[in-house]
Specification:
- Keywords: Hydrolase.
- GO terms for molecular function: hydrolase activity.
- Pfam families: Isochorismatase (PF00857).
- It contains seven helices and six strands, in the order βααβαβαβαβαβα.
- It has about 200 residues and is of the alpha/beta class.
- The protein has one domain: Rossmann fold, CATH 3.40.50.
- The protein has a six-stranded parallel β-sheet with strand order 3-2-1-4-5-6.
- Helix 2 runs parallel beside helix 7 (about 185-199) and helix 5 runs parallel beside helix 6 (about 160-170).
- The longest helix has 16 residues, at about 185-199.
- It is globular, with a radius of gyration of 17 Å.
Length: about 200
């Protein structure tokens, strides 16, 4: 039997870096949009289910002899052990997925580890933080690799309104690999597909 085209497969939900360092108000890297994005992320995860929901984490384990050394010198508060509470998931996040977290020391999370779970050309719903850093870099790398991506715009948390708008504009330049949709639109379409499958 031939494989099912990725566009017809049930999607995976990738929640990028729902960690305290990007969410806690006292963190220097907290997104001002996290609180409004988080309930939408939870709704998406409830619809997709834990078996097809993945969480990633950015960890401070990059080689300091590279340009990452300069990066951490610029942000010394983040230059702590990967076991530091800063890098833990936000409350409630771990329960959304049945899988271990995809941990990477890079902004972009697309790579052999993630591809090994979802396959080389998956249908991915993308949410998380931040729109203008780890979401952007993950989406563009995955698009290059042949994935079909839906960026759930209001389930992504940016560092600022201007940076978020710029990142969404940039990702929107890459159809048909990348499309931009709101969480309401995504949930409606998923419900309609589920109803069609029940008939």
């Amino acid at each position: 039997m031939p494989p099912v085209p990725a566009s017809r497969e049930a999607p995976w939900l990738l929640i990028i870096d729902p960690q305290r360092i990007f969410a806690a108000p006292e963190s220097d890297w907290a997104s001002p949009f996290w609180e409004q994005s988080w309930p939408r992320i939870q709704q998406l995860a409830a619809q997709v289910g834990p078996e097809r929901t993945l969480l990633s984490r950015w960890l401070p384990t990059a080689d300091r002899s590279t340009a990452w050394g300069e990066y951490f010198r610029a942000w010394p508060f983040a230059d702590v052990s990967a076991a530091d509470p800063l890098y833990q998931l936000v409350d409630g996040a771990a329960a959304l997925s049945a899988h271990p977290t995809v941990d990477e020391p890079t902004f972009g999370k697309w790579g052999p580890q993630l591809e090994g779970i979802v396959g080389p050309a998956p249908q991915l719903l993308v949410a998380g933080v931040s729109t203008d850093c780890c979401v952007l870099t993950t989406v563009l790398a995955a698009a290059d690799a042949g994935a079909h991506l839906t960026v759930v715009t209001d389930a992504c948390a940016a560092s600022s309104p201007e940076n978020g708008a710029a990142a969404l504009h940039t990702m929107g330049l890459f159809p048909p690999q990348v499309e931009l949709r709101t969480s309401a639109d995504v949930l409606t379409r998923m419900t309609e597909r589920s109803d069609d499958g029940d008939q």
